[in-house]
């Protein structure tokens, strides 16, 4: 029996703003230790299956940080969603990919940004889920016994139907979305409800049948992607088709409608770390109940969460109580702890006030510096005009070649590869996309990309791009695969097409 783990690693970076951003959501942060949440999730996945059976679905803008944090994951096992479409399309595409290898595969679906403590208990719980998925042929979810009334979580009402030979596995009577506090208190007192952890187990066949029955528009829309699995144009088909799939949660669209749903109680400690106030539950406090992270001095401060992101800058508090203070390179966020769940209101006002740039990480390369650099180099260096912009050659030696590429908005370099040449690109300014072996990532300065020989790659500019490129000195080592300007397939003496 083949077991595959599907890790969902999308997100908009809102829960832990300003520490998290659109290009660095919560799963890529080291919130509780020396490893990020995606690294912890990947490590736990390896306890269930070999690395070749682990698939990660993430956003285009997160591909590079994912690859840097989980380098052992094969590139072919990373799937970039062109646009966010919630969890159902992601799971449907994963099922199609896994079915093409082995139709009997059992899928374990894990969020990438949850805190789980107790590896042994995690393995026992998920192993029971795998047994139940195979034995019952249904959809299995993992529930967590509530320890407090929590309106921010979804709940599962446990039924009374037991499963012989599978201790603890019972049917789900119904799912309940985030209740009010009074209802949550009743759920806790009844003892019949579990928190919905968002972790699932099912066979490929079971989830595909459930989607076809309860979300037929997704089953229909995924067909072009399913047909392209294993083909060279798979990434292109995903790019063209994914945005047309319904924006739907697997919980709302499938699990709540299905009748063959089973729940296993989690044996491990769990928290979804849904807001800054969650740190009260998972970090030790000082004598006054404060959670102080980084270079912080607190005086007459009680019950507060204070984080400094820079070792060279002190955050000092005086007379605060039940507050949240987060200091980053470009934002200082201060809030009442009881309003932590309303963080989205701040982000909404950011956008309405024309301050949406603060939802992205600062580039670290001021436009004035980039402009001065290009101007200075253009004065004494060879400048080659190109249909997409221009190249400024600032150095050619027997050991390396260096240049500045300026790509105009809406233009693109050709799809190309090098037989022997290695090159590194530092994106200084602008925005766009870079494609490498069919995987497309958003360009977010000051991003650095290294391109190895035989890697098919292309850069396209949404806004004027400025790129610092350093390569080995094989100047004529370029093979064009596609070119919108009608140039020949071999670049001759040109390094860049």
Silhouette: globular
Query: If helices are DSSP runs of H or I spanning 4 or more residues, what is the number of helices?
Result: 13
Helix content: 25-40%
Low-pLDDT windows of residues: 364-369, 491-497
Structural description of this entry:
By secondary structure, the chain is an alpha/beta fold. 25% of the residues lie in helices and 31% in strands. Strands 18, 19, 20, 22, 23, 24 and 25 form a 7-stranded antiparallel β-sheet that branches. Strand 16 (323-327) and strand 17 form a beta hairpin. The longest helix is centred in the first third of the chain and has 18 residues, at 119-136.
Features:
disordered C terminus, 497 residues, five-stranded mixed barrel, 25% helix, seven-stranded antiparallel beta sheet, alpha/beta, 13 helices
Q: Would you spell out the secondary-structure blueprint of this structure?
A:
Elements: E1 3-9, H1 37-46, E2 54-59, H2 63-69, E3 78-81, H3 87-101, E4 106-111, E5 115-117, H4 119-136, E6 139-144, E7 155-162, E8 170-176, H5 181-190, E9 193-203, H6 204-214, H7 216-221, H8 223-228, H9 234-241, H10 250-255, E10 261-265, E11 269-271, H11 279-282, E12 291-293, E13 296-299, E14 305-308, E15 315-318, E16 323-327, E17 332-336, H12 343-352, H13 367-380, E18 382-386, E19 389-396, E20 401-407, E21 415-417, E22 423-436, E23 439-443, E24 448-451, E25 457-471, E26 479-482
Parallel strand pairs: 1-2, 1-4, 2-3, 6-10, 12-14, 13-15, 14-16
Antiparallel strand pairs: 4-9, 5-11, 6-9, 7-8, 7-9, 8-10, 16-17, 18-19, 19-20, 20-25, 21-26, 22-23, 22-24, 22-25
Helix pairs in contact: 3-6
């Amino acid at each position: 029996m083949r077991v595959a783990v599907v890790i969902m690693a999308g997100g908009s970076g809102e829960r832990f703003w300003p520490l998290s951003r659109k290009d660095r959501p919560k799963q890529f942060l080291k919130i509780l230790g020396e490893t990020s949440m995606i690294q912890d999730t990947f490590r736990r996945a390896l306890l269930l299956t070999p690395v070749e059976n682990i698939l990660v679905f993430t956003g285009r803008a997160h591909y590079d940080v994912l690859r840097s944090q989980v380098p052992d994951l094969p590139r072919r096992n990373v799937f970039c969603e062109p646009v966010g479409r919630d969890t159902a399309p992601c799971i449907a595409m994963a099922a199609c990919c896994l079915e093409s290898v082995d139709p009997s595969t059992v899928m374990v679906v894990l969020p990438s940004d949850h805190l789980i403590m107790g590896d042994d208990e995690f393995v026992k719980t998920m192993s029971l889920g795998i047994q139940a998925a195979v034995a019952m042929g249904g959809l299995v979810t993992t529930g967590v016994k509530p320890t407090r009334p929590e309106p921010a979580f979804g709940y599962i009402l446990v039924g009374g139907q037991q499963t012989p030979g599978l201790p603890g596995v019972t049917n789900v009577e119904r799912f309940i979305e985030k209740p009010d506090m009074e209802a949550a208190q009743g759920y806790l007192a009844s003892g019949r409800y579990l928190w919905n952890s968002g972790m699932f187990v099912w066979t490929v066949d079971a989830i595909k049948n459930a989607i076809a029955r309860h979300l037929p528009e997704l089953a229909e829309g995924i067909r072009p992607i399913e047909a392209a699995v294993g083909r060279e144009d798979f990434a292109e088909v995903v790019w063209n088709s994914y945005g047309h799939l319904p924006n739907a949660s697997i919980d709302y669209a499938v699990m709540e409608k299905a009748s063959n749903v089973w729940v296993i109680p989690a044996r491990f400690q769990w928290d979804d770390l849904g807001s800054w106030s969650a740190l009260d539950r998972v970090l030790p406090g000082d004598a006054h109940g404060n959670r102080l992270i980084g270079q912080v001095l607190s005086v007459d401060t009680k019950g507060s969460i204070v984080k400094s992101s820079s070792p060279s800058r002190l955050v000092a508090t005086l007379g605060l109580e039940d507050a949240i203070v987060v200091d980053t390179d470009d934002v200082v966020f201060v809030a009442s702890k009881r309003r932590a769940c309303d963080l989205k209101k701040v982000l909404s006002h950011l956008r309405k006030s024309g301050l949406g740039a603060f939802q992205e990480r600062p580039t670290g390369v001021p436009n004035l510096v980039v402009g001065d650099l290009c101007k200075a180099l253009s004065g004494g260096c060879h400048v080659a005009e190109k249909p997409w912009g221009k190249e400024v050659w600032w150095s050619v030696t027997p050991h390396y070649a260096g240049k500045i590429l300026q790509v105009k908005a809406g233009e693109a370099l050709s799809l190309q590869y090098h037989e022997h040449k290695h090159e590194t690109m530092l994106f200084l300014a602008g925005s766009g996309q870079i494609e490498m072996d069919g995987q497309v990532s958003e360009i977010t300065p000051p991003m650095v990309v290294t391109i190895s020989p035989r890697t098919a790659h292309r850069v396209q500019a949404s806004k004027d791009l400025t790129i610092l490129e350093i390569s080995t000195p094989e100047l004529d080592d370029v093979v064009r695969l596609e070119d919108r300007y009608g140039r020949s397939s071999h670049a001759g003496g040109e390094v860049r097409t």
